[in-house]
Amino acid sequence: MFNTITVNVDVTYNGTETMDIFTVTGEMGLAQDSDDWSVAVLNTSSGEYEDSVDIGLGVGSDDVEAALTTTVTLQITMPDVADAWHLEDAHRVTVRLQTELGEASTVQLKVEVPQTYGFDLTQESDTVGMGALVERQFSVDITNEGNGRDTFTSYLVEEAIPEGWSITPLESTLVLAKGETRSQTFTAFAPEDFTEGEFPLTVYVDSEGSGTTKEATVTIQSARITLVVDQDDIITASDQYTNEEGAVRVPVRNTGLLDAPSVFVYLTDEATGEEMQVNINVPAEGETVAEFEGITKELAGNARYHIRIDVQGQEADFVDSISEGGEFDFQIEYNPRTTADGDSPWLTVVIALLVALVVYGGVKTSRSRGGSRF
Fold first, then answer.
1. Is the dihedral of CA 22, 23, 26, 29 positive or negative?
2. Contacts of 320 by beta carbon, 8 Å cutoff, 6+ apart
3. N or C terminus of the chain: which is more exposed, having fewer CB within 10 Å?
4. Which domains does the chain have, with CATH numbers?
5. Closest CA to 240 of 168, 119, 328, 334
6. What is the Cα–Cα distance from 245 to 268, expressed in whole angstroms?
7. pLDDT (tens digit per residue) in 49-73
């Protein structure tokens, strides 16, 4: 739905010409929603609104009848309230009268869009896994669904936080423009005696403009780390061609509810004894790939590797299990890249030789037939 308003602008001629012709236009000032507005000028002769209209003003003479004043009517069409922006300094519409010589006069009008309020509150997860002396963050997303700037205050009720816990900040403020989404992040630190159990924690968000409060509740619960590594996944993810620099990639999944921010993955090439190390962060219920680059195998065949996985930091005390005890051997079969892979350097040479042989054979057959007699 579009809303249309009309505005009359009185114009007085202050020149000395018998008759001056002015082109009248209306221009929308720059704003976030300028493209959704339109400004037109009434043509009194046709009764239609047009992008520009010519009017005549002057002092007149015995032979020329002219007017010193007139009224210009503008039609301003604004977008639906859901699409229009409320601006603190309003929208600006400029009325311009310009002569054929380029001389111009302007006047500005302000159009105020009434402000509406509303917001949406969402959270990434309903559960936050924790362990004793572990620090973890959680957040809520605030989206301003009003048509102008609004101030949002997020806060926790201190009395609802169990003794020994630290959760910051207790209160914070965000100023959001229309349609903007921002995350408010909180950091929780568990006490030394938190080894089991759970409790709810509610985040309240106030809209200053509407006076509305919404809330989001997360459950803080004791959690553990479970790391899963599948040897078939390693082989599928890794490079397997000889005489090419490639990588061994080790996907590590955490099926537990506690983040594992400091997981050390060690890869040993059993042929050379060289050990490489990668440190990765494996989030709760997530997967991260430990990538060991710069590996080149010159000979085709099976290459054996040894994997060792170690969780360090405060989270090391909360590991339920790691696949195969966190240490195992596996092998990758390396082979030359073939034409089936689409990148063989010999493919072009082979095709050229085949073409040459076909041409040579065709010419020889033609000459042979040309010399035969019936």
1. negative
2. 224, 225, 226, 256
3. C
4. 3-111 (2.60.40), 119-222 (2.60.40.10), 225-334 (2.60.40.10)
5. 334
6. 17
7. 999 999 999 998 878 888 999 999 9
